[in-house]
Amino acid sequence: MLRAKILSTGSSLPQRVLTNTELSQMVDTSNEWIVERTGISERRIADKDKATSDLAYEASKRALKAAGMKVSDISMIIVATISGDMSMPSTACFLQKRLNAKNACAFDVNAACSGFIYALSTANAFIRSGLHKNVLVVGAEILSRFTDWQDRSTCVLFGDGAGAVLLGAHRGKSGILSTHLYSDGNLWDLIQVPAGGSRMPASKDTVEERLHFIKMKGNETFKVAVKTLGSLVEMTLRHNGLSPSQLDLLIPHQANHRIIQAVASRLGLSMDKVVVNINKYGNTSAASIPIALDEAVCSGRIKKGDYILLESFGGGLTWASAMIKW
Ligand code: COA
Q1: Among 91, 131, 163, 193, which is disulfide-ready with 291 (CB 3.0 to 4.6 Å)?
Q2: Tell me, what's the pLDDT at 307?
Q3: Is the C-beta atom of 155 inside 6 A of ligand 1?
Q4: Best mutation site among 114, 147, 222, 284 for ligand 1, i.e. most ligand atoms within 8 A of its Cβ?
Q5: Residue 302 shares a structural domain with residue 233
Q6: Domain span holding position 193
């Protein structure tokens, strides 16, 4: 059977570390509150002269090197992001230019924190249909540019980074076994950046009112996320005829340590089967899963034949999962 297989991974994190202690000098918060409520100790912040495609480029170069693939072999580039270089053109086109990937079409996917799995699922469909052979899928964010550094309820959460995977067509039993995408636009207002689009174009007033920054109803989002993700992971396992005990690794979107633990405990999974790096990077939205996947690959946590479950939840609302046999 023709499947899409992850050939390699790569990631890129800015060097600058912003600690909770530094944040507590900027807004009314504390290291204890942030660690207890979110699991985050620090996050990375991109240098001023970097744009999202720069982080995407570094992550992609590493994935290309790891696969030993020529850039000319890539026929499609998909970047999942909500913090692209510009609203137009796409960040994927900037990445294509940087990589000199002349044979690739390039486009962005916006599904907020679920963006990476949405992009992976899109690439998977193109590969399984036989239309594309090698696809580069990237999740990249510089959320620090969309973060209101005066709002303690959101500024402690987000970070910058990028992760990339190279997918290739492959005949066999391993690869991406299934992907599952869901949305509920009725709950659009739980996480949003209100201004800067056609509904509320940028103006002096929107800037003064700080409407170009991420707004989130955190507690409401938290409750929906826990409920939704629990059913999502159970359904994904059922769909593939697997029991939780057959799962080798859960790679969740890193939004809140308590959400991650709730999902693991619903499956009866011990935390050593869950990849957690939210303590180091915070919530990097579409980048969190490919960064965590790359770290798991590089540290030798993944072996051939492993069943790996990816899951995410984010603005839109959107939620998504993917089951992979490595
Ligand atoms: N430092 C100290 N206190 C803070 C704070 C901070 N950084 N941020 C909020 N608080 C306060 C609130 O003002 C509130 O105070 P009050 O009780 O006096 O009104 C109290 O802490 C509790 O706030 P609440 O928002 O109910 O906290 P919470 O336990 O829900 O945690 C989040 C907040 C954001 C960490 C949590 O809701 C969350 O992770 N939400 C989901 C995020 C998510 O999954 N997003 C989807 C993908 S982006």
Answers
A1: 163
A2: 98
A3: no
A4: 222
A5: yes
A6: 177-325
